[in-house]
Amino acid sequence: MRAALAASLVVVAALAGCTTAAPEPVTLTVLASSELADLAPVLADLRRDTGVELKLDRRGTVRASDDLAAGVDHDLAWLATNRYLRLKAADLPLSTSTMISPLVLGVKAGKADVVRDASWADVASRAAAGELRFGMADPRVSGSGMAALIGVATAAAGTGAALRAEDVTCDKLQGFLTGRVFGAAGAAEVGDEYVQRQDEVDAVVAYESTVLSLNASGQLREPLEVVYPRDGIVLSDYPLMLLKPDKRAAYDRVVDWLRSPSAQRAIMERTFRRPSDPQVPRVEALREPIGTALYFPGTQAVVDTLLAAYDRAGQSGRVVFVLDHSTSMAGARIAGLREAFATLSRAGGFDRFRLGETVVLVRFAGTVKEERSVVVRGAADLEALAVALTSADLADDGTAIWSALDHAYRVVGDGTVVLMTDGENNAGMSAEEFLAAWPHPPARTYAIRFGEADPVELDRVARATGGRVVDAGSGSLLEAVKEIRGCR
After folding, report:
1. What is the C-alpha separation between 81 and 390, in angstroms, rounded?
2. Alpha-helical runs (H) found in 201-282
């Protein structure tokens, strides 16, 4: 009997040794990007396996980063990226990447040929020409919306490096934003908005995960093709950040679980985000190479400049070109001017004329010879600009630069003036009289100088208006026009 009792005690002890105590339950508050609502089933599994419940307080990534920098009382933060926080905070909290999703274009299959294998420049060009209408998230709130602006502006700068504020001072985002039909409140909302307004647009600018989720939703009348801009991608790696060091033990439990192969597969299969662990095999929809990652801006000033450009996008725009048609322009100079306008009127690049923009041509010699205004609604309006310049005669009655500029200021409104001249002022107002007449210039003047035009006088007046001089003699006239064309 004693032997039997001893044996039973051994069995009980063995069973006790095999019993694993349930993990201590913990609840952590998390400041999270809005799109992480789709992780609810994954977080339920996390709670079951680790005892840690994550209570998400969801906001747009940009806004959440601002709130985080100002100070919040959350235990953790889980944002699409910590780059916006890095611009505001000297020290980043402990962070661990959990999953990856690039910013892409989701384009209707019937429209995909227009932008397949496209660069950001191609997308901007198509949008400016009215050939691509899209929805995106509001960059003032959402990381995906800001990532779109960064992609376009970085491509426009053409430096191959991180954007600087001076790269976007003369922003070239307006053509791209011409195609924007709606700006949703955040990355989570952009998909819902697209479903509601899919007949109004050709595409959506969003995370890859959003586009693939839309295709799988059964709510689209036409599937979306994923387009990865070939000149660079903005990536989000969803770092989980520890805000309160005393929660480190629970944080480690969460990170270990999220980074496990089974959790990485669950995230991928349920949300279409790529695993942060390269060893986890990807589902077929996520095997497409995403190309080169773009540099992220290094200063808050760049982000502020991009947001200012976005806020101006609703303005249709107005630019007045003041063109010297004196006889000294005969030959190569007038031919170069006409070619520059012909190129600006054709599709291509960031600097073309845009739909809805008002373009005013003021031709002058000894006096103002003609004023012609065109609102760009389509190809016919652009052709009218080219015809107006091609058919214009030159005059030999002098060069009244400042009188012509005075005329332009009376019609420019809140637009921009571009002055092109090759001569010295010898008729009408003097530079001093012009500056006295306009002590607070209503618009910037950008002067393109070539030939014998007085560089000192042009520079003095241009700078007084907040503009500058570009010397066409040091490069092509077209490049000079394009350099200042983006300045608003």
Report:
1. 52
2. 208-216, 248-258, 261-271
Q: Mean pLDDT across the stretch 339-365?
A: 73
Secondary structure of residue 217 in the 3-state scheme: coil
Dist CA 400 CA 352 (whole Å):
28
Residue ranges of the chain assigned to CATH 3.40.50.410 = 315-485
CB 401 within 8 A of CB 408: no
Q: Go through 387-424 and write b for each residue having 16 or more CB atoms within 10 A of its CB, e for each that does not.
A: eebeebeebeebbbbbbbbbbbbeebeebbbbbbbbbe
- Put the strands of the sheet holding 318-324 in their side by side order: 368-375, 358-364, 318-324, 416-421, 445-449, 468-471
Task: Indicate the fold that domain 101-235+293-311 takes in CATH.
Answer: D-Maltodextrin-Binding Protein; domain 2 (3.40.190)
What are residue 239's DSSP bridge partners? 97
pTM exceeding the 0.70 threshold for the entire prediction:
yes
Calculate the alpha carbon distances from 289 to 228, 253, 436 in Å.
9, 32, 60
Burial of 217 (0-12, 13-18, 19+ CB in 10 A): exposed
Are the beta carbons of 435 and 458 closer than 8 angstroms?
no
Sign of the dihedral through C-alpha 9, 12, 18, 24? negative
User: Cα separations (Å) of 155 from 122, 150, 162?
Assistant: 10, 8, 10
- Count of all residues that appear for the chain in the document: 488
Q: Kindly report which listed range (43-57, 67-81, 294-308, 450-464) carries the lowest average pLDDT score.
A: 450-464
Q: Domain 21-99+237-282 adopts which CATH fold?
A: D-Maltodextrin-Binding Protein; domain 2 (3.40.190)
* CATH number belonging to domain 315-485: 3.40.50.410
For the segment 397-411, the average pLDDT, to the nearest whole number, is 94
